[in-house]
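Hi Y.,

Following your request, here is the sequence exactly as I used it, all 82 residues.
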Amino acid sequence: MKILGLLLMAFSLAFSAVDINSASAKELSSLKGIGVKKAEAIVAYRKAHCFKSVDGIVKVKGIGKKFLEKNKANLKAGDCKK
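Below is the corresponding structure, written out as C-alpha cells. Let me know if you'd prefer a different format.
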C-alpha cells in the first residue's frame, strides 16, 4: 500500500507543479536536488515567511540558483496559508 501511495504521488508530481507554500516535506523531497534535510528547511522557512514567488526559495539555506533553474518549471508558489 505504501508503494502504491508513493507511485501515485510521483505520478501526480510528474503532471503538476509542487506548491512550495503548501507541499509536505515528503512532496518537496521528490524534487531533483532536494533531500529530507532541505525539504524540512523549506517547510521551516515557510512557517516563518511566505513564498511570494518561486524565486524566494533561494532564501532557504542550502537552496541555490542552480536548483531553481533546474526545477522552476516544476514549482509554483500558491496562496500563503498562515
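Strands lie at 18-19, 75-76.

Thanks again,
Q.
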